[in-house]
Design goal:
Strands 1-2-3 form a 3-stranded antiparallel β-sheet, covered by helices on one side. The radius of gyration is 30 Å and the shape is elongated. It has helices at 59-73, 78-87, 92-99, 103-111, 118-127, 130-144, 161-169, 174-179, and strands at 20-31, 38-49, 55-56. The chain has 2 domains: 1-74, Ubiquitin-like (UB roll) (Roll), CATH 3.10.20; 75-146, 434 Repressor (Amino-terminal Domain) (Orthogonal Bundle). By secondary structure, it is of the alpha+beta class. Strand 1 and strand 2 form a beta hairpin. Bound molecules: zinc ion (ZN).
């Protein structure tokens, strides 16, 4: 495992004063139910307080378990998703608006609160390639500013007096009225 465990700056959640050390332990946990259930193997940082002897797992262990599930499902991990977004120096709001996913969903994927489905995962994966980001930005720019195509000059109608007076009264329906003649 390439993960570098953070061994610094832990304070005991119980006594808050003790020196907390980290010991790595192997752990297996079940993911899924019934026939789809699998056992996933992880190495977790177990914190131990020298003062009150409390042993506990913190959010780092949660991240490691979550990453193991993502690896098993072959989807991007929360940190991989964050890294893709940060590659373009985009905020969550800007990135989610660009790729048309919900801001809250993106936030949950990045925090590990929610696993992205496979189509969203494919989208995120593809956004990891700068050429795809360039294509998408180009496409969206074209949507916002459609290429200025030459417009045909408006047809000119020669109206008689009756049509002119009707047009003045029914100006909203003017073009409809003319086209019906
Ligand atoms: Zn303690």
């Amino acid at each position: 495992m390439n993960k570098v465990f953070n061994q610094l700056n832990h304070s005991c959640p119980s006594c808050e004063g003790g020196v907390v050390t980290t010991r790595l332990i192997d752990d297996d946990f079940q993911y899924g139910e019934g026939a789809a259930a699998v056992m996933l193997h992880v190495t977790l940082p177990l914190r131990e307080c020298k003062n009150c002897e409390l042993q506990y797992f913190d959010e780092e262990a949660e991240e490691i378990r979550h990453d193991a599930v993502c690896k098993h499902l072959k989807i991007l991990t929360p940190r991989e998703i964050t890294a893709i977004r940060q590659r373009y120096a985009l905020s969550k709001t800007d990135f989610s608006s660009l790729i048309k996913v919900g801001r809250i969903s993106l936030s949950r994927w990045e925090s590990g609160a929610l696993l992205q489905n496979s189509s969203s995962d494919n989208l995120l994966y593809l956004m990891g390639f700068t050429e795809n980001m360039d294509r998408l930005k180009k496409r969206q720019a074209e949507i916002l500013e459609p290429a200025k195509t030459e417009r045909k000059p408006a047809r000119k109608f020669k109206l008689n007096e009756e049509q002119l007076s009707l047009a003045a009264i029914h100006s909203n329906n003017f073009s409809l009225f003319v086209n019906c003649q």
